[in-house]
From TrEMBL:
Membrane topology summary: Single-pass type II membrane protein
Official protein name in the record: Cell division protein FtsL
Compartments reported by the entry: Cell membrane
Domain of life: Bacteria
Pfam families: DivIC
Residue spans crossing the bilayer: 37-54
Alphabetical UniProt keywords: Cell cycle, Cell division, Cell membrane, Membrane, Transmembrane, Transmembrane helix
Database matches in HAMAP family: FtsL
Assigned protein family: Belongs to the FtsL family.
Species, as recorded: Planococcus massiliensis
GO biological process: FtsZ-dependent cytokinesis
This protein's GO CC annotations: cell division site; plasma membrane
Function: Essential cell division protein.
Presence of keyword Cell membrane: yes
Amino acid sequence: MALSARKEAYIQQPAVPQNPSRQPVKKQSLITKGEKVLYLSFLAAFVFCALMILQNQSEIQASTQEIQTIEQSIDEKVKQNTDLSVQVSELSTYERIWSKAKESGLKLNEQNVKVVPGQ
């Protein structure tokens, strides 16, 4: 019997009256429109700065690579110049010049030799 009484009490409870004049409640967002604009502008500025940094780094890397290439070519030219100056000093020895003169049929005439002072 107690069970049926409980059922009847449950069934007989009046339903919650709905008020048709009441408008649905809007949820307020946690972030306002102004804050959204500020966040988006900050994000855009951050992305722009990051892209500028990346672009500058790539330009710096390209310049560094070009500098290294130029330095290598300078080192090669310095080595070539050193080798050529050694070759010039070897080819300009007195004995070599004298032997080339003899091969050409020239003879040493000491009366025609002039000494240049200074060098």
